[in-house]
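Title: Prediction job returns without error message
Component: structure pipeline
Severity: low
Priority: P3
Assignee: unassigned

Description:
Job completed but the reporter wants confirmation the result is attached to the right record. Sequence as submitted:
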Amino acid sequence: MKKIKSKNLFFYLFILPCVVSLTMVVVIPLIYGVYYSFTSWNGITTPSFIGLGNYIKVFSDKEFLNSLWFTTKFAVLSVIIINFLGLSLALLVTQEFKGTNLLRTIFFMPNLIGGLILGFIWQFIFIEVFYGVGEKIGFEFLKAWLSTTKTGFWGLIILTSWQMAGYIMIIYIAYLETVPKDLLEAAEIDGANSWQKFRNVTFPLVAPAFTVSMFLTLSNSFKLYDQNLSLTNGGPYNSTQMVAMNIYNTAFAENKMAYAQSKAIVFFIIITVISLTQVWYNRRKEVDY
């Protein structure tokens, strides 16, 4: 009994710093944020309570709603592309041939580059390299890649997919390497081809990887800010502005702190509902073995 109590004591002592840090950095600011979202606080004057005024204004704010729609389209498409690329790369580097470790390193390296730096790198590629290539081969659409909403949208998709695919690949590799080989051999003996083995054996067994990967890519896509700032800065005319940038500009460019906080609360609720729904749905599709 004494040993059990001492283990419990050490357990609580070890997690205490984490709990305190989490409370101070996340929980308390969240509570203050919810309070300020019901006020007219601008970061300087004393806040005054205005009730649901900020929230009513949020749902009639065309710029915020446009950025929310743009972010939603970006999130849906990037989740599909990143997970497809991540799984494809994982299937490639789990094959038995020389150089797989080198390929894993190469594919993962873009994830080590910071978001701002990555945005500036791809900005140079889209503006300078694409323009030069477009001028030589006569493709006009390559000359002004970030000057329109459509091409700016695809620029963000390309950047994010290139950065995240290698990270998601690592998650799929971890699950692919745990698939029992005897099941694959049994399926092969029964006459299953490569596609049938993947669809009926491998795919159901790596379902937990889809749950984790989709959650990470979905939450990351909705919260994207650094890449959006450095690649397009929301242009042209805020048409590629994502929600995180819209909230930041409302708070620090317009000094509407309470209004920005109400946007953040609404955004937080949307992300929470979508993420929990995705996890719940994917959990139902998982297979135990």
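Comment from assignee: result matches the submitted record. The radius of gyration is 24 Å.
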